[in-house]
Amino acid sequence: MIREQLKRRITQAIRDAQAAGELPQFDLPPFTVEHPRQAQLGDYSASVAMQLARAARMPPAQIAQRIAGHLSLDGMATVDDAGAYLNFRLSPQYLSGEVDKILASGDSWGNIDIGAGKTVQVEHGSANPTGPLTVASGRNVVIGDTLANALSAAGFTVQREWYVNDAGNQIRHFGESVYARYAQSLGVDEPFPEDGYKGDYIVEIAKAIIAQAGDKYLKMPRDEARRALGKLGIDSIMDGVRASLARVGIHHDSFFSERSLYESGQFERVLPILRNKGLLVEYDDALWFSEDGSPIRKGETRGEKQEDDSQKPEVRSQKIENGGAGKEAVQVVVIRSPKVVAEPSERPTYFASDIAYVWNKLVDRRFDRAIYVWGEDHQGDVPRLMAVTRALGLDTDRIVLLIYRFITLMRNGQEVRMGKRSGNIITLDDVVDEVGADATRFVLLSRSIDTKIVFDLDLVKKQSDENPVYYVQYAHARICSILRKAAEEIGDKRLEISAGATNTISNLQSPISSYIFSHPSELALIRKLLELEEVVEQVATQLQPHHFATYAQSLATTFSAFYRDCRVLGEAPEVSAARMKLVQAARTTLARTLALMGMSAPERM
Questions:
Q1: Which domain covers residue 182, as residue numbers?
Q2: Are 259 and 348 a contacting pair, CB within 8 Å?
Q3: φ, ψ (nearest 5 deg) of residue 157
Q4: How confident is the model at residue 318 (pLDDT cuts 50, 70, 90)?
Q5: Do 169 and 309 contact (CB within 8 A), yes or no?
Q6: Domain for residue 201, yes or no?
Q7: What is the pTM of this model?
Q8: What is the tens place of the pLDDT at every residue in 542-561?
C-alpha cells in the first residue's frame, strides 16, 4: 500500500539523517501516514516530526526539514515540509503507472497481506432455529459474510461458522409447538402451548412430517415424540435457512451444533477447570458461575427463578472486594435446578454452552481470533463471556464481540412490525423477493454496525440516483457500456476487448503505456481507485463493513465527474487509448468492491 511505502521511505530518511549527524540517535516510535484533512495539502501526511521533538530535542519544523532532505521518493511523490508536517503529493507519472498495476491485478485488485495467514473464525447468523431466517437476522449474516470477505482479501485464513442453537429450553418450546400442530393436523384435540411458536410455518412443518411419517409420533410417549419432532423441525428450519442464505450469496464452512458440546463430552471436560478454581457455586438447587467465587446473593431475581432460556439467564455484577478497584464480578446460572426443568438435557443455559464453545474455538480449534457477530439484544452477554474466558485462563484479546443495531423496516412510510413467536415475521426471502438480493445486501451494509438502519422498501425499488444501490450498480453498467461502444467504434485498430470472466468485461489490452495523465479529473479518479487497498485494510482492522458501501458510492461519483470532464472517444489515439485503460481500471475496481460486498456487477441495466 502507498502509505506503507511512504512510511518505509520516511523511516529510512530518519536513519540516514541520524547517520549524517543531522538528527541525534533515538529509538523511532510507531508513527502513521494518513490522508490530510484538507485535500490541498496533498495526498498523504505524516506528523512524525512532532513525535520526535522530545527525543531529538529539536523543534518539529526543523526535524521535518532534515527528514525531507534525506527522503528518496524516486519520482513517486513530492514532499513539502510544511512546518511540523511532511506532506506528500503523488506525481502524475506515478499515478499513471498505477493504472497498469490495477489492470494486471484483475480480480485480486485490492488484496493486501496484513493477516499473514493468521486464522480467524467469523461466527455469524446463529439465530435460534425456531423459525425462518428473518430480515433482522439478515443484517447479521450480511455483516459477517462481508467481514469474512474483507479478512480473506487482507491475507487472513478465514472460517465462516453458523452456531446452531439446537439444545436447551427454547428447543423444548419449539418441539411442543410442532407436536401440537402435528397432533391437530391429525385430528387430535391437542392444546397449543401458551408460549409456543405461532407462525404458519409450524403448521407447514407438521404437515410435511405427516406426509413422510403419518401418525408415527402419536404412538410414542409424548415427551419422546416432542423431542423427536423438535429435531425434525430444526432440520427443516435449517434446510430453509441454507436456501435463504444461498439467495444472498452467503455460505458457511461449518454449521456447529450446540447439542454436540454435550453429546461429545466437551462441556463436561471444560467444567472442572472452573470447579477446581472455586468459581462454580451451588445455590437454590442450581449451579452458578461466580467470577470471584463469592456466594450467590439472595433475593428473588429472574436468574434465581431460572425461567425460560428465551429470557437469558440473569447476569449479575457485584464489586469484587479484593479484586481491584472498580472491577465487577459476574454471577450467572450455568445449570438450572431440576425443580425448574425436569429433563436433564434441557437444564444447561445458553451460558453453559458459551463456556464450552469458547474453549472449543480457542483451544480445540486454535483460532488466532474468534469474531462473534451478535445483535444488540446480546449486549448484556458480553461481560459474562469475557468473564468466563478470563476464568478459563484464555486470552480475551483473541475474542472480538461485534454488537450490531437492529433494523427498522418501512413500507409506504409505515414501520413493519416483526416478531418470531407471534408469527408476525418478515423473512429475508420476503425482502429479497421484493427488492432483490443485491439491494438487500447493500442496504444492510450501508451504515456502521452500531447505527440502526431504516430499510425503506419503497426507496430501494426506485431506479434513480436517489437509490444508492441503483446509483452504484448503474455506474458499473455505464462503464461496461462505454467499453462496448469503444469495441464497436475502434475494434482491433487500437484497442482489444476480448471475452472475459463471468459478469465482467475482460482486461483491456493496449500497447500504449507511456501516456501521463494530467487532467485533474483523471488524476482524481486514479487516486480514488487506489483507495481500495486502504478500504480493505480499514474494514479488516476496524471490522466495519459499511466502508465498502461508502467507498462504492464515492467511486461512482468520482467516475461520473471524470466522464463528464474527459472525453474518452474521439480524442487523439494515445489519449483515447489511455483513457480507455482508465475506464477499465475503474470497472475492475468497482466490480471488485461490489464482489467484496457480496453483490453482482451488472453489465446492463
A1: 169-250
A2: no
A3: -95, 115
A4: very low
A5: yes
A6: yes
A7: 0.90
A8: 999 999 999 999 999 999 99
Residue 583, domain CATH: 1.10.730.10
Q: Are 317 and 383 a contacting pair, CB within 8 Å?
A: yes
Concatenated DSSP letters of 406-435: -EEEEETTEEPP-BTTTTB--BHHHHHHHH
Strand (E) or helix (H) holding 12: helix 2-19
Q: How far is it, in rounded angstroms, from Cα 173 to Cα 233?
A: 12
- The reply to whether 214 and 301 lie within a common domain is no
In angstroms, the CA 540 to CA 154 distance is 7
Write phi, then psi, for 167 (nearest 5 degrees).
Answer: -140, 160
What amino acid is encoded at 353 in this protein? S
Q: Where are the alpha helices (DSSP H) in 22-81?
A: 48-56, 60-69
Q: How far is CA 240 from CA 130, 184, 236, in A?
A: 11, 23, 6
- Give 28-83 pLDDT, tens digit per residue: 999 999 999 888 899 999 999 999 999 999 999 999 999 999 999 999 999 997 78
CATH number at residue 34: 3.30.1360.70
> What SS3 state is found at 325?
coil
H/E element, 161: strand 157-164
The residue type at 373: V
Clarify whether residues 223 and 206 are in a common domain: yes
DSSP-assigned letter for residue 114? S
State the angle between helix axes of 48-56 and 60-69 in degrees (0 to 180), rounded to the nearest 10: 110
| Backbone angle region of 83, left / alpha / beta, with phi > 0 → left and psi within -120 to 50 → alpha | left
Task: List phi, psi (to 5°) of 597.
Answer: -85, 0
Angle at alpha carbon of residue 202, lines to 219 and 259, rounded to 5°: 75
Bridge partners (DSSP) of residue 328 are 319
| Angstrom distance (rounded) from CA 454 to CA 447 | 10
**Cα gap 596→545, rounded to integer Å:** 9
User: Distance between CA 22 and CA 59 in Å, rounded?
Assistant: 13
C-alpha cell at position 481:
457500456
| Grid cell listed for 287 | 449451579
- Asked if residue 23 lies in contact with residue 42, where contact means CB atoms within 8 angstroms, the answer is no
Residues 69 and 107 reside in one and the same domain: no
Pair 175, 226: CB distance under 8 Å: yes
101 CB-near residues (< 8 Å, 6+ apart): none
Q: Extract the C-alpha cell encoding 231.
A: 429435531
Angle at 366 between CA 365 and CA 372, to 5 degrees: 80
Q: Tell me, yes or no, whether 28 and 81 share the same domain.
A: yes
- Where does 421-490 have alpha helices with state H? 428-435, 437-444, 468-490
CB 340 within 8 A of CB 202: no
Is pLDDT larger for residue 281 or for residue 465?
281
Closest residue by Cα to residue 32 from 48, 8, 52, 56 = 48
- Based on the fold, state whether residues 99 and 34 are members of the same structural domain: no
